[in-house]
Amino acid sequence: MSNPQQLRYTKEHEWLSAAEDGVATVGITEFAANALGDVVFAQLPAVGDTVTAGETCGELESTKSVSDLYSPVTGEIVAANQDVVDDPSLVNTAPFEGGWLFKVRVAGEPDDLLSADAYTEFSASGN
Predict the structure, then answer these.
(1) Mind listing the pLDDT tens digit for each residue in 75-120?
(2) 9, 35, 37, 45, 68 from 103: Cα distances, Å
(3) Bridge-partner residues for 51, per DSSP?
(4) What's the pTM?
(5) 66, 71, 88, 104: least surrounded by Cβ within 10 Å?
């Protein structure tokens, strides 16, 4: 499993792109997608919603369980991936590309985001 170096990661297994014009893209990692199993339903935050770093903002349902979705940053939702709502399996097949979940105008970012190498080490330790 390869975690793209340009992204940052949370211990809840979300990834965050670098902000372009103040907007960052969020998704779940391949590790999380594999742990969930086949994702069959995605409830994403709505455009205009405000999210807070570390707080739940949606959920993903798989054939195994329902998992909360956490925002890695504080800000306002500017886009939700309708393709994932229509075809939740994108989260499994392309977690770092077409399976992104939402875009957020970043207002605040926590200090505890992990680099790709640190996240790989964290997830390999069974967390």
Answers:
(1) 999 999 999 999 999 999 999 999 999 999 999 777 889 999 999 9
(2) 15, 23, 24, 10, 17
(3) 75
(4) 0.94
(5) 66
